[in-house]
Amino acid sequence: MSGEPLIRVEDVWFSYDNEVTALRGVSLTITKGERIALIGQNGGGKTTLAKHLNGLLKPTKGRVLVKGMDTRTTPTHELVRYVGYVFQNPAHQIFTSRVYDEVAYGPKNLGLSEEEVDKRVRRALEMVGLQDYVEWHPYDLNFGQMKLLTIASILSMDPEIYVLDEPTSGQDHRWRNLVAELIMKLNQQGKTIIVITHDMKFVARTSERTILLANGKILADGPTREVLNNIELLREAAIKPPQITQLCHELNNRLGTSFQSMLEEEAAEEFIKHGINV
Amino acid sequence: MALIEVKGLSFRYAGSEEYAVRDVDIEVERGEFIVLAGRSGCGKSTLLRCMNGLIPHFYEGDMEGRVVVDGMDTRETPPHMISQVAGMVFQNPENQLFALNVEADIAFPLENLAFPREEIRERVEWALRVMGIEDLRDRSPAELSGGQKQKVAVASVLAMRPKALLLDEPTSSLDPLSAKQLIETIAELNRRHGITIIIAEHRLDLLLPHASRLIVMERGRVAVDEEPRKALTRDIIPYGVAVPKVARVAQLITKMGVGCFRRLPLTVEEFVEEVRGDGR
């Protein structure tokens, strides 16, 4: 059922030590089935906020409720049933010496039967296209495959909510398509997806809601189209808007139009419909 | 004579059955700005390593054909000689920086080659200036941002006064704004100082406006080698290359037969210039 609130972040403050305050009064609600992008400059608080969503970090002040459970009093191993976190650097996540074991580790810890674990491992590896690498050592995979493996090891836990930290950084075009398709597939299965990213093209393509963080506060939280078209705000937050958004903005300035496209096909159609003259 | 000449080059890393680079022929003229594109693993890095002598001197494997850099055959020339002509900047600046402060980091390769003190000072000053990082000279690399680190790494290569800079995905660990700044600085090196640039990158939207040539590689071979606007008229998406979005929009409009661009726009500004006005 969509519309059901899964995570509530209530006036959360967080300091890594007494000097740096990484979050300053963040509040938001995440409902089932949403696709959310967390954007903002490095040091703005994106990763800190994301790590609050499965209890990896606990608020200094305020609280986070995951399906009604307070993250300060619920053990992390309980929360990870519901919220899966895929790290930016696969080396921070991979710790076994066999692809199969890496993906089996989570579901085993959930206390599932050997049969069920096996089923989940096969299914997860198939979803990311690593079914032929079952016996490999994770470090013999290339970087992109290692990232896929870390995604598979979360898929096998079958959480309701996925947090993906910079899934496309340093990766090629083909990879971006692959991850975008995976996100859409999971979302169609009713999963809630939160992506931390610098890649505005990727945001335009995959997320319907965008949250912009700067200096530990939420600067904007709304439909992606609205947030990415707020060029002034993005400039203030030192975010480079996607090229199509910049193009629309420039044309609007010049022609007094109100183009709001984010994707190429959409832009071409919008321009033609309006009778732009080239 | 071309600055870098690659002739019938094939290379296979020791222990690997497949060739990383196959039958490559490329001539790089002085002052060119070449973008090397293609999906991860297509052979871009290997080709760059061949162009500055890392291959065959530091990587073992089978090499066929030859690479001549400013008249020097890479097989017969020690790598430090080649790197004075074609300097390499890597993906991760961390691997290139190690000294206590930025100045020392930039000076190190020169000291290593026993350059006279005065010459070192001049070159370090020049490198700091052209990279716009004079204010960082006393800082420790550890306290710099990723973008600043990469600029220092480029400066330390520039201090060798190479004729060509080879860059292997230098922005892959940078955020988009730092990436844009770095690429603009590199474009300046090409425009104002005539330094030949060969850069392997995924961020074509930032690079192509500055490029004289786009080379797309696929499974070790050169699939496309042309002036960027021409290259974009081919279907290069199957090679895992992201066409700049504004160029895509222009192509879509052209394909629908409702508009005609005098030249394919590569930037927002170029697109806007082509728009003659509102049709209504």
Molecular structure report:
The complex is a heterodimer of chains A (278) and B (280). A six-stranded mixed sheet of chain A has the order 6-7-8-3-9-10, with helices on both faces. Chain A has a four-stranded antiparallel sheet with strand order 2-1-4-5, covered by helices on one side. In chain A, α3 (99-109) packs parallel to α5 (143-155) and α4 (114-127) packs across α5. In chain A, 47% of the residues are buried. Helix content of chain A is 39%, strand content 23%. Chain A folds into two domains: 5-238, P-loop containing nucleotide triphosphate hydrolases (Rossmann fold, 3-Layer(aba) Sandwich); 242-278, no CATH class. Chain A has helices at residues 46-52, 76-79, 99-109, 114-127, 143-155, 173-188, 200-206, 224-229, 231-236, 243-255, 264-274; strands at 5-15, 21-31, 35-39, 61-66, 69-70, 83-86, 161-165, 192-196, 209-214, 217-223, 276-277. Chain B is of the alpha/beta class and 280 residues long. In chain B, 35% of the residues lie in helices and 22% in strands. Chain B is built from eleven helices and eleven strands. Chain B has helices at residues 44-51, 54-57, 79-82, 102-112, 117-130, 146-158, 176-193, 204-207, 228-232, 245-255, 268-274, and strands at 4-13, 21-28, 33-37, 61-69, 72-73, 86-89, 164-168, 196-200, 213-218, 221-226, 277-278. In chain B, strands 6-7-8-3-9-10 form a six-stranded mixed sheet, with helices on both faces. A four-stranded antiparallel sheet of chain B has the order 2-1-4-5. In chain B, β4 (61-69) and β5 (72-73) form a beta hairpin. The longest helix of chain B has 18 residues, at 176-193. Chain B is globular and about 65 Å long. The N and C termini of chain B lie far apart (55 Å). In chain B, 47% of the residues are buried. The model of chain B has no long low-confidence stretch (mean pLDDT 91). The A-B interface holds A 41-42, 142-144, 169-176, 198-201, 238-240, 242-244, 246-247, 250-251, 254-257, 264-265, 267-268, 271-272, 274-278 and B 39-41, 91, 145, 169, 172-173, 175-177, 180, 202, 205, 237, 240-242, 244-246, 248-250, 252-253, 256, 258-261, 268-269, 271-272, 274-280. β11 of chain A pairs antiparallel with β11 (277-278) of chain B.
